[in-house]
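hey can u check if this looks right to u? its 280 residues, i copy pasted from the old doc so theres a chance i mangled smth
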Amino acid sequence: MIRFQRIPASRARVQESNAGFQRKFAVNGRDESRARRGERDGASLEALFASRGFAAPEKAAAIWRGIGGGALAPSASRREAVLLGEIASSADPDLALVNLARYVEATASPGAFFGSFVLERPICRLAVTIFSCSVHLSEILARNPGYLAWLIEEPTLGRGKAHSQYRAELAEHAAVFRDPRRRLNAVKRYHRRETLRIGARDLLGVAAVEEVASELSFLADAVIEAAIDLAFAELASREGLAPDEGPDGEAPFRRFAGISLGKLGGTELNYSSDVDLLFV
């Protein structure tokens, strides 16, 4: 509440001058009170992030306010408290908050984020786990926000996929388009989506190390096969041939082989492995 005091008559002229200044620049006691309260809230927010183990509490507080988070007073919403709790207990709270901000920018206005399904506890934990552990997977989510809803569908993270399933799904995704560039983009999207799925299963402990390595290898093999298929289809189109016909009348694949070497050949691929191939 703003309290008013009587001003002695001897200061009337100074008071009148100050009143004119305040009217000119739209400054009043309420604005000053709000500014001071904002400073206190900012300081308390930074102190809160420091107490929760953030390495850069000032930056964390600025990011939190940027995505629409409040001062986290006792009256703060349950969802805000749940989100902050998950971030603070994650592997890297600072990284998690940075990647969360990127996701929020790509999905909705900051004000709408705290009312979204993402803050339901199981989904929130999944998202924060990804945000705190992997910049690459976080970038995939930021580019494709809808993938988070896909991840929580029951079959997505529940079980792995066989090599034949990757091949069949990838062929189905690419077959929707006729334009070679759009088909290639479909292959890229599938690769990003499945990399996210494999990574999420890995981070949640749903899949063993051997299963993760096998699936990464199966996915890479299917993507390489699809890319070769697209290359031959484009070559046949340019030469005026049927897709399954080469210049000598034989199918192009009959005299071409892509041989996987190294970790890919042994189905031991990891996230940063080079892919060694021999084309014969």
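Residues 269 and 279 are 19 Å apart (CA to CA).
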